[in-house]
Amino acid sequence: MGSIVINPETGQKYTFCQSLPPQHRQTICGWEETSAALDNHHAAPGAESLERLISDRCTRGKKRRKPTRGRHHSGGARRITMAFDSLTSKAVLLYQEWLQQADPRTEDWPLMSSLFPQTVIIISYIYFVTTLGPRLMENHKPFDLKKAMIAYNFSIVAFSLYLIYEFLMSGWANGYSYRCDVVDYSTNPLAVRMAWTCWLYYFSKFIEMLDTIFFVLRKKTSQVTFLHVFHHSIMPFTWWFGIKFSAGGMGTFHALLNCCVHVVMYSYYAMCAMGPAYQKYLWWKKYMTTIQLVQFVMVTVHIGQYVFIKDCPYKFPVFLYIVGLYGLIFLVLFLNFWYHAYTKGKRLPKGVPNSKALQNGNNGPHANGVHHANRVAKGATNGILNVKTKVVANVYHGNGFYHRNGVHKREG
């Protein structure tokens, strides 16, 4: 308040509070000066313009200081918007920086230019199998897809055999040590062959979405569970990043094993779809669960090596952790099934004639659309017939089906 104000025309000096009009002194300075000596400056030439200038500034200051609820609300929303925009910008910048480290060999391959194409496919798949498909089939009879499913299952078997050969020839039987095998990012023909094999495996995940689509078209929507749809959605999504950044190396071992399991699994499905005449050739069905368990144990152990190997220069170890976590989760799920189905004895006792699912004349719907009558599986596409006792045994299938207490159910 001790600031000096100079009248530009008279050169007379005043304190800031003295220079204010009387009506503003109380508001600005906290006191009101009534002394005539302090008011003499108002009579000086130019005082009117000075007073008007100070008055205008005080008025504008009051308007700026006056808070309103709407302005506070707008300011809070603005800050939230700015924070969100900043976070989004940082995420985009981080993604762009990460893309600069992508494998240039795969950049121009189908579906690899960006996440958008596969995201559209995955979202469309989820929408169809959970909403659109069941709605369209609501007043429609189930489709008879027996021949289509036989062709589909054998096609997956043939494709899986080809992938096994390619995985072996491009690394796993041709130079890989089964320990710290890093990705070869060079244009060496063998390295490019491995990368292309990885892309073929990635593409096969889209083909396997037909598993769920067949369920919907055959009106077996009870089999379209969350875990089933999640599995078929997350596999291609995560593998896109694998192809983009890490197409090869020790992270592909689980893909090789998965192809081996698919040969056994889809062969079984195809033969089941061919009808009861081929049931006698499915004596190996009881080993299905064991094969699955061995697969996940091998995946977990192999990937787990990375934690204990010193100085393993794997460029993107995050993919190894994802594979290891995935294998560990499914290992736990399968062990849980094995425990409840076999160790605790919750399997169907042989020779029990009154099982509801197998009673004579009780043709309740089988999970794959085929009915059991007289305790004989009639043309079960995914069903299991115990030839000796003509009852359904407990077994877990690779696509998440299992028989428990005579009823074909869905597990995850």
From TrEMBL:
Belongs to the ELO family. ELOVL7 subfamily. It is a multi-pass membrane protein. GO terms for molecular function: fatty acid elongase activity. InterPro entries: ELO_CS, ELO_fam, ELOVL7. GO terms for biological process: fatty acid elongation, monounsaturated fatty acid; fatty acid elongation, polyunsaturated fatty acid; fatty acid elongation, saturated fatty acid; long-chain fatty-acyl-CoA biosynthetic process; unsaturated fatty acid biosynthetic process; very long-chain fatty acid biosynthetic process. Pathway: Lipid metabolism; fatty acid biosynthesis. This is Elongation of very long chain fatty acids protein 7. The keyword Transmembrane applies. It catalyses: a very-long-chain acyl-CoA + malonyl-CoA + H(+) = a very-long-chain 3-oxoacyl-CoA + CO2 + CoA. Keywords: Endoplasmic reticulum, Fatty acid biosynthesis, Fatty acid metabolism, Lipid biosynthesis, Lipid metabolism, Membrane, Transferase, Transmembrane, Transmembrane helix. Its EC number is 2.3.1.199. The chain crosses the membrane at residues 115-137, 149-168, 199-217, 224-243, 255-275, 287-307, 319-339.
